[in-house]
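Aim 2, interim progress: modelling of the FE2/S2 (inorganic) cluster-bound target.
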Amino acid sequence: MSELHKPLEELGTPRPRDAKTQVSLEIDGQQVQVEAGSSVMRAAALTGINIPKLCATDSLEAFGSCRMCLVEIEGRKGSPASCTTLVEEGMVVSTRSDQLEKLRRNVLELYISDHPLDCVTCPTNGDCELQDVAVELGVEDSRYGLSGSNHLQAVKDESNPYFTFDPSMCIVCYRCVRACDDIQGTFALTVDGRGFESKITAGQMESFMESECVSCGACVNSCPTAALEEKSVIELGLPQKSTVTTCAYCGVGCAFKVETRGDEVVRMTPYKDGKANEGHACVKGRFAFGYTSHKDRITTPMIRDSIDEPWREVSWQQAIEFTARRFREIQAEHGRDSVGGITSSRCSNEETYLVQKLVRAGFGNNNVDTCARVCHSPTGYGLKTTLGESAGTQAFDSVAKSDVVMLIGANPTEAHPVFASRLKRRLREGAQLIVVDPRKTELVDSPHIRAAHHLQLLPGSNVAFVNAMAHVIVSEGLADENYIRERCEIDAWQDWSDFIRGEENSPEHLQAVTGIPATELRAAARLFANAGNAAIYYGLGVTEHSQGSTTVMGIANLAMATGNLGREGVGVNPLRGQNNVQGSCDMGSFPHELPGYRHISDPEVRGLFENEWQVKLHPEPGLRIPNMFDAAICGDFKGLYCQGEDIAQSDPNTHHVEMALKALKCLVVQDIFLNETARFAHVFLPGSTFLEKNGTFTNAERRISMVRKVLPSRSGKEDWEITVDLANALGYPMSYSHPSEIMDEIARLTPTFSGVNYAKIDALGSIQWPCNDAAPEGTPTMHVDTFVRGKGYFAITGFVPTSERSTRKYPLLLTTGRILSQYNVGAQTRRTKNTVWADQDLLEIHPVDAEDRGIGSGDWVGIKSRAGDTVLRAVVTEKVQPGVVYTTFHFPLTGANIVTTENSDWATNCPEYKVTAVQATRVTQPSQWQKQQVVFNQQQKAFLDKARKPRV
Ligand code: SF4
Ligand code: SF4
Ligand code: SF4
Ligand code: FES
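Predicted structure of the complex, ligand included:
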């Protein structure tokens, strides 16, 4: 393509959907061929011809309000807007003429007459579309002057912590309103008034903070002027450099441009070509990066002999030698298996891979586990058993082809917001939604969206629910027999269908268990089974149960029985919580599996790794996280290397966890902050944030994306380098000069990654594994012609009620979840301005239960289970049903995990966070544990302060 034909970066209008044919036309004397359904503006931009525009942008459907993009078309009267005019075969278009320039200048002067002419001092000077158009048309002033009525004195809205709205800069192009409606799906903005009086307003003439705005930033991205502007740009100036990277928060894995000025991040803007997010973001990824430069960051290694002593800052060499010596001494005294490691889903694939390699090859055992143990380990087990691969089956854009979506135990509006926006768009287009959740989540009923069914099941009854759905489908003859005959094991199908037809699985029989009216469940099952394309999306509300693995298998059974696997628009889709849950599992973090989910006991697989790693591997699976805790309390497990994971806050039954951590002789924590776990540590190795290192993350759709270093590491080392140093100090040599070499090793050893390398990820933008000779550019949809295991397997899913039931002593069921503004244990988001939306965990309680107990919103409430008790403030709400209470787990002093028990999934030990029998009472003071925590925290802070030398 010649320079002349180089497409512009911004094409003005979106690519037409489902374009099948090409259209030829002439624009300014050039022959152009574009997809049918394209606008004239887009066709021109693809040819490198820029038509002035203000209200158009290629992330939004054309609107045609500004009249700046006028063109002339042979044989047509007047000057149509090129953004709203579609191309036609043989069309002849002129984008430049004296008449057009005159018309455009006239329109522009009207805009300028109501816009401050202070470009030189404007924060977006040089990054403003109005300014660009004015320069292009040579308009410096307006004939209409500024003296007429205008909006120049309008008051600026600075209520949002991250961006401002300055109405005096607004040209009422509606781009922000359309972005909020069409991209984000929140409908927070409107235009008040008509004609000249019209103005943009949030909510019902409220400030942005008072309105429904969720601070996703889509309106700010789309604003062509400085009317909506990031505060960071106003404070720091426009960025000078931009680097594409991947969000380090949730499992959606949004691509971002990190925009920097020197060594300072000015802003993060969602990357238009990012396949997971297509230019959209949420408040966390878009704005909550302040933690990366927070004063609490620890950047110097520290050691101590006991947790009752102050920390000592030391050099990297001293810290590594101290750790290696301690671990070798422990192994010499207590045996090879007395030490282990924990990887984290916050870390990159390369870092995680190295930690499990260190444990298996350096420690000589398989005592490695990951925080995915406590979230999605049942997904791995359940999907591997039924379909043959431990991963979701689709790409996110598949949802655009779904006719019915069943959302089970997931609240994407809060936890996976960018996927939620995609889903909402599809629902607004007419797809139907079934929400299966004990709580009334936003998707049940929100602007322009109403779920066809909200099946408000009782916590702990998931398996009963999936069985009842399957019962209706099989007994009413709604199963896809052809699909099953062709794709699944017939004997297993026969056994399962005989089982599921049993009366004990009928919705009527299970109604008392699930709490779902049988007629409604039957209607939902029919809707799901009769859909052209039915997709299931699920979250931790499925996995974090004593029968988490059984529910995952039940979900796979539902999808297979209705023929909803192996094409776009369908599938089984686990929504992963943290950024790299999928990757940490893929990389062999579980004690029984080497990378690529291959069992450690398989001599052939072990041989492959032994050959590459030049070491003999132990064939027996090692300890899982809960086993490590138990063994520590028993005195058999003494040393733990914990990279990027805060087990003291995130694991259940805090009393038990703390007891285990206190029993360790050497706890090594590698993190960016002195987290809750680090209070029990003997070695602190300062980690790097995602901005300070290279690597890859794998999101919930198996998409491997680059994490690119934009700032120097504050500690002087990237996390993978720390693991390499530790391995070498332990006497197991490791040598890499860049994480790309680690990925090359992963690819050599893992069939599903054999085609992956950094150069290819760079070239393609991202890759969904499997990526190998059979699929050199990756696999968006899995199980297309056949399942990975060959024939799909229907597992029998008998319902076994959890032992965690409400009793007279503990009459309420506590369930847990997340909120939009906070992330996981909150270590990052609590150190950002996101705390303006939530600065504590709250207990949601139904008005009936609240009244029984004399509890009002804002009261302190003590919740007590058989594991422990804690105190937090109440919110009285009908979002929860009577008998159920709900809280989040983002704030350490709330100690939600003080009350959660050690019940866990039968197959994987994933904790049963979602069901704890509790009592709630009104109280006036913190719990005993909370008081002790305050004292312990003060002591540990003093130990830290002693270590840190005064900084200039
Ligand atoms: S930040 Fe997002 S939610 Fe808020 S008004 Fe803008 S587009 Fe709407
Ligand atoms: S705030 Fe920006 S995007 Fe919204 S109408 Fe005004 S100029 Fe357009
Ligand atoms: S949706 Fe998830 S990945 Fe995307 S910006 Fe938000 S937190 Fe980051
Ligand atoms: S850009 Fe076409 S009318 Fe505004």
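Residues 247, 249-250, 252-254, 277, 281-282, 284-285, 416-418 surround iron/sulfur cluster (ligand 3) (CB under 6 Å). The first helix runs from residue 40 to 46.
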